[in-house]
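Our consortium's second objective concerns turning raw sequence data into structural hypotheses that experimental partners can test. To show how far this objective has progressed, the report includes one record in full. It was chosen at random from the queue rather than selected for favorable results. The single chain below, 90 residues long, was entered without modification.
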Amino acid sequence: MNWQISQLFGMNVYSDKAVYLGKVEDVVLDVTNKKVSGLALTNVNREAIDTKNYSGVIIPYRIVKEVGDIVLVRHIPGAFKTAEDQVSLE
């Protein structure tokens, strides 16, 4: 499927464990290798990602599994809390 980088802006990002991570604010490009290297997220779910008081976070593009109506990324144990972890905190 062909798509343009600008289509990523504003997309919601979820882990494959159904955890909302944030919204794509910007795309980080590796111009030397002509590829996307990361997604800069805003509106970050601080219950899922420890942002250490930064306003956003960059997700490496290598963990992106699918791009469609949302961006789906591979869950990384220790980096993201699961939906079950979030429910048990409430």
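The partners drew two points from this record. The helical segments are 83-89. The first strand starts at residue 12 and ends at 15. Both points have been shared with the crystallography group to help prioritize constructs.
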